[in-house]
Amino acid sequence: MAAFLQMNIRLNSIKIVPGRYSSLTDHQFRAPYRIRCAAASPGKKRYNIALLPGDGIGPEVISVAKNVLQKAGSLEGLEFDFQEMPVGGAALDLVGVPMPEETFTAAKQSDAILLGAIGGYKWDKNEKHLRPEMALFYLRRDLKVFANLRPATVLPQLIDASTLKKEVAEGVDMMIVRELTGGIYFGEPRGIKINENGEEVGISTEIYAAHEIDRIARVAFETARKRRGKLCSVDKANVLDASILWRKRVTALASEYPDVELSHMYVDNAAMQLIRDPKQFDTIVTNNIFGDILSDEASMITGSIGMLPSASLGESGPGLFEPIHGSAPDIAGQDKANPLATILSAAMLLKYGLGEEKAAKRIEDAVVDALNKGFRTGDIYSPGNKLVGCKEMGEEVLKSVESKVPATV
Ligand code: IPM
Ligand code: MG
Known about the structure:
The chain is an alpha/beta fold and about 400 residues long. The chain has helices at about 1-10, 25-30, 60-75, 90-95, 100-110, 135-140, 165-170, 210-225, 240-255, 265-275, 290-300, 340-355, 355-370, 390-405, and strands spanning about 45-55, 80-85, 110-115, 145-155, 175-180, 190-195, 200-205, 230-235, 260-265, 285, 310-315, 320-325, 375, 385. The strands form 3 sheets. A 10-stranded mixed beta sheet has the order 2-1-3-12-11-4-5-10-8-9, sandwiched between helices. A two-stranded antiparallel sheet has the order 6-7. The protein has a two-stranded parallel ribbon with strand order 13-14. The chain is globular, with a radius of gyration of 21 Å. The chain starts with a helix and ends in a 6-residue tail after the last helix. Bound molecules: 3-isopropylmalic acid and magnesium ion. 3-isopropylmalic acid binds near residues 133, 136, 292 and 324. Pfam families: Iso_dh. Its cofactor is Mn(2+); Mg(2+).
């Protein structure tokens, strides 16, 4: 408990009510969440995976993705011990806090974390420190997962689902590298205060230290190097001091990556260029808030936010893998959610979190196969295809994983 409290107190702008950061009781810990421990089989690699289903459609998409992960892994000789823990609104309902101590410990001690979605109308009026989203910030900050990789790829099968013209959208394949543990999301001073006129003022601070810019820029240069060798750094250096430093540090690092072509773009222009000509982008690196906004925009080019996975990585420790969509409370529990973003997040978990590229490729291939067969959830449906629910989409991907010859990487 002590360690977890210290962790929260470090987020010093947030009002902490120590008594509310309670532990799960034995009873709450066991039901409905359980720890599954499979018996070890010889010759198999084992990994501990923390599953954090969260809220809304989170549990539906996680249960589907878990089965796919298990199957693809077993075909490559991998075994997983899954530990499912409450987070966000689910944890608030259970123990009154969005991030129980045991959940954080399980996440921290795992080899990788797969998260569903967090939040919902029910908790919208909660005080800030008791909002479900706080769990995400604790996880990101205290696991130190500063690099958030958000790919946006237009699959030919889904070209009709894009809101852009076919010729603009087809062939889009970009990676947004979003800084995740700094900037305006965490900067001090912050909060709602009273100014000298007695009026309420809301304060958030965009602040970046040189080392925070350098480390995310290095991830981005390395990412671009493995892709098409083009990196666009997005900032607002015509207005914001934090962006002026951002541009200076990114530019200074470019000489270490002569094989990468670096360009810079202001964020307002980048928002426009993403719609005008998205194919010009290969890798984008940007700060926390611009990355949040631009990745939602990029997702729509691909047809649906329900398709996009993400990976959040630090220098060491487990990575956090989650779909970029939210908890969609309007369709929760109706078997309508698109599980593909979470399934593809499981593929990223294998690739970036565990270095298991073959198993990852099996999942990616299976998703394409299920789409080739015409299976579509409502969000990506177009006439002539087969409308399926979350579970059935999961079953189709599972079938494809099982039926495929071993993938070559
Ligand atoms: C995201 C989300 C979160 C963010 C919200 C839910 C706090 O929009 O992961 O993109 O702003 O980072
Ligand atoms: Mg977002």
